[in-house]
Amino acid sequence: MSRTAVKRPDPLQPSRPVALGLLVVAIIYVSVLLLLPLAAVFVEALRNGWEAAAAAIVDADAVAAIKLTLLVAVIAVPANLTFGVAAAWLIAKHDFRGKDFLLTLIDIPFSVSPVVSGLIYVLLYGAHGWFGPFLQEHDIEIIFAVPGIVLATVFVTFPFVARELVPLMVAQGRAEEEAALSLGANGWQTFVRVTLPNIRWGLLYGVLLTNARAMGEFGAVSVVSGHIRGETNTMPLHVEVLYNEYNFVAAFAVAALLALLALVTLALKTYLEWRHHDALAAAGH
Amino acid sequence: MMPSPLLDTDMTITIDHITRRFGNYPALDGVTLDLPEGEFVALLGPSGSGKTTLLRIIAGLEYAEQGTISFGGQDVTDMPVQNRGIGFVFQQYALFRHMTVAKNIAFGLDVLPRKDRPAKADIDQRVDELLDLVQLPGLGGRYPSQLSGGQRQRVALARALARDPRILLLDEPFGALDAKVRRELRKALRQIHDRLGITSIFVTHDREEAFALADRVAILNLGKIEQFASPAEIERDPANEFVRDFITDEVDDKPALSLVRT
Question: What pTM does this model have?
Fold first, then answer.
């Protein structure tokens, strides 16, 4: 009789036990695989208190590693930002022979083991490599030096920006660019005023991924670095050195700092998305 | 208002033996047309007849493998789209989604080199004029996603008119709209054309729309012009079997060849 009697359960939703079961599985999965390890890093770092952790980070070798990691990121990220945007623009907005081949090339760093990428650079630029004699003659150091680390990092982080942008730009099509051209804009104006604003969020995400990987890369960098303390050790390599020396607190302290850098990037992204929420909604993202 | 390289010349459009292939399929097969200045012309044909390709070649968004296009006697075949002094209204409007309506309309003026660009206040005034012209006063602050389909269409039209083009090209301008909005917009477009007196060409697959709106209709089929005449003439004296069928039957949704963009 009464309209307010019993509410009908939403027939489109799973039943309560199923929903609860899925929820529990998800929580356990996320906790064990994501949250627990992250928490463990910070717990281990602070096992002997703040002072011990801080001491490990202000240690001269650790400072050198932090500086090197930031230097590598500062070079690798803009390099791959520029390349990634150019490649995505070419692939998404133009037709040309060999397009699929170019896409496959861009994916190589994803499909090749990082250790192999490192070895390729040793093979090319190492003392006994293809260009080794030439480099030695001209006193240029690449392998076991900073240039090698930068090269290996750029290689490993090559696809992130392009891979993020290509599907986005393909989905957006060419109509807005054509409209800009028909309204008298030249190629550069079209790119800066129309193409770039439309991809800025995808671009931001690609840059953050590139940055995270650039700071965290271990395999490829490990092969070309030579592990010279205070000179060619990046933060991940420094963590390994400390860990192998049974210096667990210091190892976890540096690892915690590395994790913090990643968390800061994520927080920054979330903040930007929140700040520009209205613009995002209006632009139909 | 705008210094255009083509200003003050006579704006007849001469299309001379234009040919374009997509793969082995001729989208346009030696199309020749003379469009008198100030006329409102419809390119009418079934899907795959080449009408959109022809419009895009006139605009400079697509190239012709053979043949020439001239505006008022000047050969523009190799002229880039930016310099042709045309306004183009795209099928899905192609409004810049990250810009407000006002910014969309002002775009053509904003990208002018500094020495030719009107002052900010003049641009704002021009945007207001255009918003009035397309009957959307006061909507300059909205984003495209906040507009209805008919409103977006009007914004696209205003944007295309901002630089005072001598030729207006419209690709299926009413394709995505419901019948009532279609009729309103048709009337508005015809009025705007008559007021500005610019040579206008629109592509449609809708016979009724072409006949109701255009001074003259070019009927295309398989990349060739079957007839180019006024609606009355076509109805009185269809040039051939195809035209007779096309204007009597509802062949709208019968694609001649669906492999190719219409």
Answer: 0.81
